[in-house]
Structures are given as C-alpha cells and as structure tokens.
Amino acid sequence: MKKKVAVISLGCPKNLVDTELMVGLLKATGDVVFVNNLESADVIIVNTCGFIQPAKEESIDEILTAIEEKNKSPEKKVVVAGCLYERYKEELKKELPEVDAFIGVNEILDSVEKILSRKAAFTKPYLLREILTPNHLAYLKISEGCSNACTYCAIPLIRGGLRSRPMEEILEEAKMLADRGIKELYVIAQDTTAYMHDHGDREGLVKLLAELEKIEGIEWIRLMYTYPSHITDSLIDFVASSEKVLHYFDVPLQHISNKVLASMGRKYTRQEAERLIEKIRKRIPDVVLRTTFIVGFPTEDESDFEELHAFLKDVEFEWVGFFKYSREEGTAAYRLGDLPEEVKESRLSLLEETQFWIYEKKNRELIGRELELIVDGRSEEMPGYVEARSYRNAYEIDGIVFLRGDFQPGQMVKAKVTDLASNVDLIAEPLKE
Questions:
Q1: Cα 390 to Cα 412: distance, rounded to the nearest angstrom
Q2: Overall number of domains in the chain
Q3: Where, by residue number, does [4Fe-4S] cluster 2 bind (predicted)?
C-alpha cells in the first residue's frame, strides 16, 4: 500500500529546490503518492525557513498545524526539514516531541531513509527532482552556503560557507530540465556571482552561463542574487551580448549609506554601487535592475535613512524589495541592539510609497512598446486574459502582464503594451503574426 504524502515548502526558491529533490527521491521509490491536503496524508513534510523572525513564525505555525492533524489521527507521521531545524536543532527536538523525524539541510539525500525508514541509494539524485513550479520554468541551484559574512545574515550559521557544485553536474541537471520542457531557467544561489570562488576561479559564473546558453530548449536564462562587488565587467559584457541570458540584474544593495554598509559587513561603498549601476545601464540600455533594501538596521540614523530615500528617488530602480531589519541571534549584528518597531515601520512605509510612484512612472513609459512574453496561465482576475511575463518580470516577485487571448502556459507570444492594470502590472495585446 502506497503512503500518502503531503508537502509544505516554505521560504526561498533555494529551499524549494531542496523540497523538489526530497519529493523526487520519495517518488523514485515507487512507494508514495502525493496528496494536496493534510487530512488524507499518512506523512506530512514541512520544509521550513529559519532566516528571519516572520519566516520562523510561519514555519512554527505550519509545524503546529501538521501536529494538530497528527493529534486527530495518531498514526500520521510529521517530518520537519530545512533551515529552521538546522538552526535550532536541540530546541526543536525538545519542544516538539510529536515530530517523528527531522531532516537537516545537509541530509536531504537521506530523506527516504528518514521518512520511509528504509535505505535508498541514487547515483545522480539531482536528476530525480520533481519540479513544483509551473511546467515551463525551474530554478537551478549552482552552489550552497555563503562566505560573504554580512553581519545581519543567518545563512552561514544555517548552510555554512560557499560550496560550488561541479559544472558538469549543473549542466546535466539543466539538460534534464530542458528535456522536461523547461523554457525559463532561474540561476540561483546565496550569491550566484561567487560561483567557483571557492576554487579560485573568479569567472566561474560566466563560464557556466556560456555552457547553459548552448542547451537546446532553454529560451530564457534569468540570473538572480548577484552580489554587487562580485559583478565583473566580463559578466556585464556577457549578459549584454547573450541571446538567452535576460537583460535583468538582481543586485541586492541592502543600503546606500557608507556607515550602514560598513556595519552590515557589505564589501562596497555607495560610490562603487553607483559606478556599477551606471556601468550596467550604459552597457545594457534596456536592462531591468532589481534590488533589495533593509530598513531600520541598528546603526541607521535619520540622516542615513534620508540618504537611502533620496537615492531611491534618484536611481529609479525597476523593482525593489524592502525588508525591516530582523535582529537574529548568533549574527555579528545582534550585539548592535535594535531600533523601535515604529521607527522601522514608518521608514518602510515611506520607501514603499515612493517606490509605488516610480513603478507607475516606469510602467507608463512601456505603453506602446512591443515585448516578447512567456505565458504562465489563465487569469482568474481578468477573464479573457492570460497572465504572462516579459524579460522584465521574474516569476512571483515582480509585476505581471495581462495578455488578451487564450494561450497555453509556456507559450512565447509577441505583444504590444496597451495600458496599465495597476502601478506594477501591464495589459497587452498579441501582435498579429
């Protein structure tokens, strides 16, 4: 009798890849069937995030929900995996005796043994991944851990230092994804630009992208999580001339005040960040820049915040993610204390409001422009339309394009932007072939 398994995956795309690997390994045994609801599951797996406080709280909530189901049916198994467990192993084992098994971030390959209580050996487990994103897009994780040592970040505590995957393994996985119909590939890591730095190779990412570009079937390659001071001239030039790597740079700056950047342990100054932005925009005129900023870092005073706010208005990024600083035990910044919650909240609101108008201005400039779109699926919000994205929109984090007509997921369609659906979303008409 096959075991029914329900999976809850929390956190970032890097964590989702771990979930996909777990699901793929379990599926390969032939002993399980996956279900979408907890009530009918024999086993509930919660792959947790432990990065910042809100993510930890969400993970605990989901674990407690799974335990509630087990209390109703004691024969059920609850399995907790991922970052939260890796960070708080002893505490979780002590506080959650109802959990039947725990799986750390470096124990994903042991998940069959931990969940089904039997040995299983796979020669190339990464080829067994079960893709949980839409059928036309997938994430490709090129390394584990991070050695950048930002003072606020718990990732090295959880996942350790940088460990780049062998290029041949990554390429084999990418070919497998292409064979399964993946058209859009998201290259991800804690810091993609540090790929192969642990082997003394500063151009590892460019070499990898050059090989990924040769894979038939992959139409778009989207580069995520690029660390500012690791973006080389050769990488910018490669993206500028590439036929598949999109003109999209995800560059998390986190702040712009030199004082705050130094206390964050970021290895660049405001002046270097400005030169980088100028260089990218000059070499790739139609580039889209996404960044993230942390507001309310302990050393951020009113003048630092005003500097960040003015910078935001001046540079006009296409996409920005804002986060309130979360004080995390074990990190170097923990000893710096914390700012009052209301200060963080008011600063966050002001930045979001400013960026709101920048979005509208930027997107209004796109009306009348022709773009190639990839279709994600039918729109529930706008009947008669599908939801699609151009090179300007990363899946689930940027705005979308409502495209009139009936198109299949994964279909590439040339279209003209006709209007704004909101300050971040566009409306487009397909071009007549």
A1: 10
A2: 3
A3: 146, 150, 153
Same domain for 247 and 100: no
Binding-site residue ranges: 12, 49, 83, 146, 150, 153
What's the distance, Cα to Cα, between the start and end of the chain in Å?
53
Q: Are residues 389 and 349 in the same domain?
A: no
Q: Which residues are annotated as a binding site for [4Fe-4S] cluster?
A: 12, 49, 83, 146, 150, 153
Could you tell me whether strands 401-404 and 385-389 are parallel, antiparallel, or unpaired per DSSP bridges? antiparallel
Domain that holds residue 208: 126-364
For 118-167, the DSSP string reads S----SSGGGG----S-TTEEEEE-EE------TT--HHHHH-S-EEPPH
Considering the domain architecture, whether residues 187 and 120 belong to the same structural domain is answered as: no
Read off the pLDDT of residues 152-162 as tens digits, 9 standing for 90 and up. 999 999 999 99
Question: Could you report the per-residue pLDDT of 182-239, keeping only the tens digit for each?
Answer: 999 999 999 999 999 999 999 999 999 999 999 999 999 999 999 999 999 999 999 9
Structure tokens at 118: 């039997």
Q: What is the pTM of this model?
A: 0.94
Q: Residue 121 has which token pair?
A: 């050996």
